[in-house]
Write a structure and sequence with these properties.
The chain is of the alpha/beta class. The protein has five helices and seven strands. It is globular and about 50 Å long.
Length: 233
C-alpha cells in the first residue's frame, strides 16, 4: 500500500512524499495471522497509535521550523489504524504550533476497540475525507470527516466475497480502501450525494451534482457520498 501510493503521488506532480514505516509497532505480519492471534496483537498495537502520531508531528514540525514546508500544504494519508496515527499527528501539530494540517485522508479508519484512543475527526485538519469500505466490521461506523465516501455501499467490496470469510474476516474489503484511492489517481471516480442511504451496494453513480473523489477531491466539498467501482487488483 505505502509504496504504491508513494509512487502514485510522486508521479502526480512536483511534491515530496514521505512513507512512515512503523514496523513492529504496527503489528506487522502478526496482523494477518489467525483471528484470535490477530485481535490480541491488534489490541496491543492500539497503545502505539498516539506515540507514533506524536513522532510524525515532531518530524513535520522540524520541517516547518526549517522552513521546508507549510502545514497547510501537508496531506497525511492513513489506512485502518494508520488513519488514527494521522489523526494523532495532526492533533499534536495543532497543540504545539496552534496550526492545522491541510488535509488528512482516512482509508477505512479502524473501528474495533478504538473507544479509548484519539480517532480521526474533521477537527484534526482543514479538510478530512474518509473512505468507507468495511463499515462496521474492521472499519469505523463514524462519519467523522468533512466528506464521507461509501464505496460500493461501504461494507463488502467486489471480488472480496470469498476472501472476506477466509483468514481475517473482512480484511479484503478493509484493504480495498487503499486500492480504491490508488485507482482514483487515474480513474477520476465520480460520487453522488446520499439521498436515502449511503450503504447501497448497487446504486448507480447518476446524479446532477456529483463530485470527483480521491486525491483530486475539492477541499470545499462537504457531506455523505456513495460511489461504485469494480474489483481492483
Amino acid at each position: 500500500m505505502s509504496v504504491s501510493l508513494k509512487n502514485a503521488y510522486a508521479s502526480a506532480g512536483d511534491m515530496n512524499v514521505f512513507v512512515l514505516d512503523w514496523g513492529r509497532l504496527s503489528g506487522g505480519e502478526i496482523m494477518l495471522g489467525n483471528t484470535i492471534r490477530t485481535m490480541s496483537a491488534y489490541r496491543a498495537v492500539l497503545s502505539n497509535v498516539a506515540p507514533v502520531g506524536r513522532r510524525v508531528a515532531e518530524f513535520l514540525s522540524f520541517l516547518r521550523d526549517s522552513k521546508h514546508i507549510n502545514f497547510y500544504d501537508v496531506t497525511i494519508v492513513g489506512e485502518s489504524l494508520g488513519a488514527h496515527v494521522a489523526a494523532n499527528a495532526a492533533q499534536a501539530v495543532k497543540i504545539v504550533s496552534g496550526e492545522k494540517i491541510g488535509r488528512v485522508v482516512g482509508l477505512d479508519p479502524a473501528g474495533p476497540f478504538t473507544q479509548n484512543i484519539k480517532t480521526l475527526h474533521k477537527q484534526d485538519a482543514y479538510f478530512v475525507d474518509i473512505y468507507h469500505t468495511n463499515w462496521g466490521l474492521l472499519g469505523t461506523t463514524s462519519d467523522a470527516g468533512h466528506v464521507n465516501v461509501y464505496v460500493n455501499g461501504g461494507t463488502s467490496q467486489p471480488g472480496c466475497l470469498q476472501a472476506d470469510f477466509t483468514g481475517l474476516m473482512g480484511f479484503c474489503s478493509h484493504s480495498y480502501s487503499w486500492r480504491f484511492f490508488l485507482a482514483a489517481f487515474d480513474k477520476g471516480y465520480v460520487a453522488c450525494p446520499c439521498s436515502i442511504a449511503c450503504k447501497c451496494p448497487r446504486c448507480e453513480n447518476i446524479c446532477a451534482n456529483g463530485i470527483i473523489v480521491g486525491p483530486n477531491i475539492s477541499r470545499r466539498t462537504r457531506g455523505l457520498y456513495y460511489v461504485r467501482s469494480g474489483p481492483l487488483a
